[in-house]
């Protein structure tokens, strides 16, 4: 006769206590949820910082932010440049530099726009340095050296007396017979009016480089 089968021992069964409420709450707060809450807090904080930074540079107005009187000195100390640092008035006058060729015609000598292939798509710094050069040249001129011009700037430059000076720029792009023209941009309301010549002021220089 075969031996009776041996009985397999069963492991003891223990009662498991249900998780505490705070453990359940911690389990529900998964890492993505915590990251989302952190990102939301950072976005709200950044927006508040921008609002206070912009409003601190604005003139006195009817809007008052909470604790602004206390925070305004600190904001101006950390961000002193103000909103005008990032923007430029669309009505600000433009400076255009011209050079007189051997044929007597005036041609634009500006290296801009910076993103053109001749400027290595913005990598070459000569076009940006020319703005500094034009600023140095205008500093050499007196108020009486500028002449009002109501017509074509080239004709006004032909009639202007040249001011002889040495180009003080380190990177010289303007030499010889040079004309500087300062004129406001064409208003947006006139954008469809065709070729519009805005009134300007011109100055002529004879630059040695």
Automatic annotation (TrEMBL):
InterPro entries: Sporulation_SdpA. The chain crosses the membrane at residues 35-54. Residues 1-10 have a biased composition (Polar residues). The keyword Glycosyltransferase does not apply. It comes from the Bacteria. Keywords: Membrane, Transmembrane, Transmembrane helix. Residues 1-31 are annotated as: Disordered. It holds the Pfam family SdpA. Signal peptide: none annotated. The keyword Repeat does not apply. Residues 14-28 have a biased composition (Basic and acidic residues). This is SdpA family antimicrobial peptide system protein. It comes from Phytohabitans suffuscus. The lineage of its organism: Bacteria, Bacillati, Actinomycetota, Actinomycetes, Micromonosporales.
